[in-house]
Amino acid sequence: MALAFAGVRVHAHDPQGQAAFWAGLLGWRIARSAPDGVVVRPTDGTAYGLRFVASDEPKTRQNRVHLDLTSASRQDMDGRVETALRSGGEHCDVGQGPDETHVVLADPEGNEFCVVPPENTFLAGCGLIGALNCEGRAVTGYFWHAALGWPLVWDQDEETAVQAPGGGTKITWSGPPIPPKAGTNRLCPELSAPAAELRAETARLVGLGARVLDDAGDVVVLADPDENEFFLRTSD
Fold first, then answer.
1. How is domain 4-234 classified at the CATH fold level?
2. CDD domains given for it (predicted)?
3. Which of 37, 100, 129, 196 could form a cystine bridge with 51, CB 3.0-4.6 A?
4. Given 3-state DSSP classes, what are the helix, strand and coil percentages for the chain, each rounded to the nearest 5?
């Protein structure tokens, strides 16, 4: 299969500022600033980066996609939360109950993310970004299972998850109900394929249930079965 998971695309009003926040929070480095966005690269063995691209679209409701960060210890968890708050993040109420053990925060542009405690076994061994957590039905998890060729590591009660065969970040879907769609998702998966394979991979994804939203030649924007956008671009 020519397709690869290349990272997470984050739409931002201030791509440079958002990149600085996330690079500082994750301990990653800003690799470059270019017309196609500000790229933050991992320093911890994570297999992909984050790309921050300019967008004027306002955030009007809770994101459908967010990141779950893991913790090596309680001290590590507290330090991560402290770093986020010191750097412009804030606590965020998404309806979590008083007994929740994870901490819900928002970055300086309001994008929700979670810091999970060290005793969380589901994300154990997944790396600092433990999960790309998505709102979606099981059918969407099955779509991504087929699209990426990653095994299903969870499939129960409409909740699904996939993970690369070699480990690393999981992609999870929480099952219905799914929040209404309001504009383009602020966080979107980015996939890559060699230029010679881009058309064939686009056709394969459509055959699996995706829909083409835009085709700029070297970047194709598609929607998965739950209408969550993702980007397919030629390999860097």
1. 2,3-Dihydroxybiphenyl 1,2-Dioxygenase; domain 1 (3.10.180)
2. VOC
3. 37
4. 20, 35, 45
